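input
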Amino acid sequence: MPVSSVQAMAEVPVTTALTAVADVCGRLTALAGAVTGRPEPPGAVRDDWLGSGPVVIVGGVGTTPFGLEPLRRWVERLGYRAVLHTAGIGTGCGERSVARLREVIERVDEGDGVGVVAHSRGGQFARVAAVGGAPVRSLVTLGSPFDVTRMTASMVVAATVVGAIGSMGLPGIATLECLRGPCCAEFRDALRAPLDVPFTSVFTRGDRVVPWRASLDDGADNVEVGGGHLGLLERADALHAVASGLAARPVSALRPLAPTG
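output
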């Protein structure tokens, strides 16, 4: 059975309430998907994908354990022990969120390092934790924005609204200082800092949440797959990239690096 890390979700009533809403939305999305058709299953597990040890699966904004279930099942099929970390509702202070994730990684480490698979903003937390020296053996991110200069206007507006709410004193929510001030300056710098662990960044041009160019990283195997932002959690091509990334095998040859122009 997976180990769930949900302590961040229960810190304050507002994050508990937001998480409950996200869980309901996720279940409704799954129900709609069951009617309209789900992605093809990932199929057989190749021998060179098999592994062992802990893998921490990190959710993004609004992600609940229910939303991470397809990814958890796949990681366990590969032979790993899945540990879920939903990072609260994903709207908290970057540096505090990284500190909580690092505690989880260090707690489950068995001495050989920990594989980390992270979706959306959770990939930011995971990358910064790895840059900061957390015992990460391999890192796979799915639709995670690392180049904040490529954020869309709608994302900037959403982040500003969240920061304004946090600045009004609502606990568990990032403040405007986290976005532009000294609070999370090191966090923002670490999003583009060199990383010395095997790193795979999976992206899709069909992403309508995170601009795909924002997921490209000079230090990663940048792997393009199909589908949209949420499809990265369950599409066969994305799950295959996860398997290769966790096994620390280059996967960039599977798909060309998308042009930056």
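quick obs: The beta strands are 3-5, 54-58, 81-85, 114-119, 136-142, 199-204, 221-225.
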